[in-house]
Amino acid sequence: MTRELKRRSRRLAPMAAIVVGHAVVFYLAYSGMLRTVTHAILPQVVTVTFVAAPEPLKAPPPPKLVPLVQPKQTFVPPLPQLNIVQTEPTITLPPPQPRAAEATPVPAQPTTHAAPPAPPAPSAPKMVTGVEYVRAPQPVYPNISRRMGETGVVTLYVLIGEKGKAEQVTVHKSSGSSNLDEAGRQAVLRALFKPQVEDGKAVSVYALVPINFQLG
Question: With a threshold of 0.90, does the pTM exceed it?
Fold first, then answer.
């Protein structure tokens, strides 16, 4: 019995090895390991691409030689020489004039009369500190200054004539508003002053006149 079993086992051993080998191959094919093993065993294919060598550059053509053309020489005949005779300039004097027997009379100088003395220039008007009014200035408050709330005192430099009227009025010190300055100047031009009298005669004088603008 033992020998019979040993004989059967020897016969079945190759068949079992074949079956096991097929099972292993089937398992590897099913799991994808067979493809990995095949890629690892087989050599990889290397692709080589040949690139054509560039064509050599063509040498530039040699420059063209242009023959030089020499200009033709033209013959210029020499100019004939002229004989120039130098002559000395002659000066002809006019004949002498006969002298007059009588000398020309000298014109008599006009007699000048002395101009009368000029009258003395009038003296400039003097400056006075106080003035009196016949009709005092009545300034009109400008509407725009009233709306803007402008106030101030304008001092005017006034030339008072012999008849008591303001002949010239200029701003000596501004109030800070051109509207108020002009309103004060117009008021002084409408005013009438008491004339200044010196030695029983009315004279022109300068005076400073202040105009105060205040809102009530």
Answer: no
DSSP-assigned letters across all residues of 7-22: HHHHHHHHHHHHHHHH
Q: What is the Cα Rg of the chain in Å?
A: 70
DSSP per residue, 31-85: HTHHHHHHHHHSPPP------PPPPPPPPPPPPPPPPP-PPPPPP-PPPPPP-PP
What confidence tens digit (pLDDT) does each residue in 112-133 have?
555 666 655 567 899 998 899 9
Residue labelled with tokens 């063509």: 58
Q: Are 128 and 196 in contact (CB under 8 A)?
A: yes
Q: Could you give the 3-state DSSP secondary structure of residue 193?
A: strand
Where do we find the tokens 């040699």? 62
Q: What is the pLDDT of residues 8-27, one digit of tens each?
A: 767 777 777 787 777 766 77
Q: Can you read off the two tokens belonging to residue 184?
A: 């004060």
